């Protein structure tokens, strides 16, 4: 996808460069039909500028659909900072980025994502009002991965009900690809529910955490090995593109529900999954707990209220799966239709002008 391609449809894409700090960022706003764009900032060492642009475009589009299905009055936006967060991140760089966010005048609210953390949002917030995911001591909601994982677990429960007639994962084997911020919390939910967890991560630090904290978790070499394990549920919780023409035929799980954004490598993979009898729950349906949490922060954060709203992911997932069955379409197509209908129907109300 390129900025001006027919399939893009983005309202605004901003390139942000501050040479003294080394900041190279791209802010993509897909839609503000439902309200200001809301989505995290990803700090990642992309191989090329084209890869960074592509990620910003894809992720911002997903955020629009995610926010629509979550019932939020927010459109879709996403930012990427091109660089190595372990080497390039600094206070001046983050503050420079915050000034670029502020310059958009509230069209885009940012938050944490891969490579950025609560402490980073506290720094960004020193230059802009339009930031969420700050620490509690600074009036924020704290770590949004807590409710992201909770929402994925709720979606997984709905998928289990649809496939096996029970909302419990007890006795099921779940493969978690990625033991980062979300994967760790999800693993705890699954173990508490009586599931068996098989996991992998590229970080030895994450694997060490699993060995020391949850020795009952079985670790495998990599994602390729994980999909070949005799698991019931596959939960991609790292970067996107986990499901493609090569992985789908090798997948042994019959349910896919995970936290990673853009899990399908390209359009059509959802049909391959359906043809193999794999129940795929769209990522942007189940991983919206985090954005529900940070959206709540904008209006004065209350964790119990945000958790209650995130609990609704169970019912949303259930409705999407039932609609897919009724219309004879993959769940991904059903979810797209519901999100697009809300963006069109509610977004149309903006044409009713209000007095200033």
UniProtKB/TrEMBL annotation:
<feature type="binding site">
    <location>
        <begin position="178"/>
        <end position="183"/>
    </location>
    <ligand>
        <name>NAD(+)</name>
    </ligand>
</feature>
<keyword id="KW-0560">Oxidoreductase</keyword>
<feature type="domain" description="Glutamate/phenylalanine/leucine/valine/L-tryptophan dehydrogenase C-terminal">
    <location>
        <begin position="142"/>
        <end position="351"/>
    </location>
</feature>
<dbReference type="Pfam" id="PF00208">
    <property type="entry name" value="ELFV_dehydrog"/>
</dbReference>
<dbReference type="GO" id="GO:0000166">
    <property type="term" value="F:nucleotide binding"/>
</dbReference>
<feature type="active site" description="Proton donor/acceptor">
    <location>
        <position position="78"/>
    </location>
</feature>
<dbReference type="GO" id="GO:0016639">
    <property type="term" value="F:oxidoreductase activity, acting on the CH-NH2 group of donors, NAD or NADP as acceptor"/>
</dbReference>
<dbReference type="InterPro" id="IPR006097">
    <property type="entry name" value="Glu/Leu/Phe/Val/Trp_DH_dimer"/>
</dbReference>
<dbReference type="InterPro" id="IPR006096">
    <property type="entry name" value="Glu/Leu/Phe/Val/Trp_DH_C"/>
</dbReference>
<keyword id="KW-0520">NAD</keyword>
<dbReference type="InterPro" id="IPR006095">
    <property type="entry name" value="Glu/Leu/Phe/Val/Trp_DH"/>
</dbReference>
<dbReference type="Pfam" id="PF02812">
    <property type="entry name" value="ELFV_dehydrog_N"/>
</dbReference>
<dbReference type="InterPro" id="IPR016211">
    <property type="entry name" value="Glu/Phe/Leu/Val/Trp_DH_bac/arc"/>
</dbReference>
<comment type="similarity">
    <text>Belongs to the Glu/Leu/Phe/Val dehydrogenases family.</text>
</comment>
<protein>
    <submittedName>
        <fullName>Valine dehydrogenase</fullName>
    </submittedName>
</protein>
<dbReference type="InterPro" id="IPR036291">
    <property type="entry name" value="NAD(P)-bd_dom_sf"/>
</dbReference>
<keyword id="KW-0547">Nucleotide-binding</keyword>
<dbReference type="InterPro" id="IPR033524">
    <property type="entry name" value="Glu/Leu/Phe/Val_DH_AS"/>
</dbReference>
<dbReference type="InterPro" id="IPR046346">
    <property type="entry name" value="Aminoacid_DH-like_N_sf"/>
</dbReference>
<dbReference type="GO" id="GO:0006520">
    <property type="term" value="P:amino acid metabolic process"/>
</dbReference>
């Amino acid at each position: 996808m390129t900025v001006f391609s027919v399939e893009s449809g983005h309202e605004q894409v901003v390139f942000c460069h501050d040479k003294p700090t080394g900041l190279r960022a791209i802010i993509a706003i897909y839609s503000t039909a439902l309200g200001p764009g809301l989505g995290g900032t990803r700090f990642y060492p992309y191989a090329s500028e084209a890869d960074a642009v592509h990620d910003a475009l894809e992720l911002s589009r997903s955020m629009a659909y995610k926010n629509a299905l979550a019932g939020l009055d927010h459109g879709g936006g996403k930012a990427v900072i091109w660089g190595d967060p372990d080497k390039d991140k600094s206070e001046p760089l983050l503050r420079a980025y915050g000034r670029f966010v502020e310059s958009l005048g509230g069209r885009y609210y940012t938050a944490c994502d891969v490579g950025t953390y609560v402490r980073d949002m506290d720094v960004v917030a020193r230059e802009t009002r339009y930031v969420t995911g700050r620490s509690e001591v600074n009036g924020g909601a704290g770590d949004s991965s807590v409710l992201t994982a909770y929402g994925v677990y709720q979606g997984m429960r709905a998928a289990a009900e649809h496939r096996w007639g029970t909302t419990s994962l007890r006795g099921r084997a779940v493969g978690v690809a990625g033991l980062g911020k979300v994967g760790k919390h999800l693993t705890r939910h699954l173990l508490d529910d009586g599931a068996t967890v098989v996991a992998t991560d590229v970080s030895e630090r994450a694997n060490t955490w699993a060995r020391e904290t949850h020795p009952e978790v079985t670790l495998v070499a990599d994602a390729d090995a994980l999909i070949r394990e005799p698991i019931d549920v596959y939960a991609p919780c790292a970067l996107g593109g986990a499901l493609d023409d090569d992985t789908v035929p090798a997948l042994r799980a019959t349910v896919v529900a995970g936290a990673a954004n853009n899990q399908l490598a390209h359009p059509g993979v959802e049909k391959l999954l359906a043809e193999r009898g794999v129940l795929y729950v769209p990522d942007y349906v189940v991983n919206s707990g985090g954005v529900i949490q940070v959206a709540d922060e904008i209006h004065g954060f209350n964790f119990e209220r945000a958790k209650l709203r995130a609990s609704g992911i169970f019912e949303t997932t259930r409705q999407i799966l039932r609609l897919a069955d009724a219309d004879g379409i993959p769940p991904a197509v059903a979810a797209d239709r519901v999100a697009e209908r809300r963006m069109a129907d509610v977004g149309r109300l903006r044409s009713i002008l209000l007095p200033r």
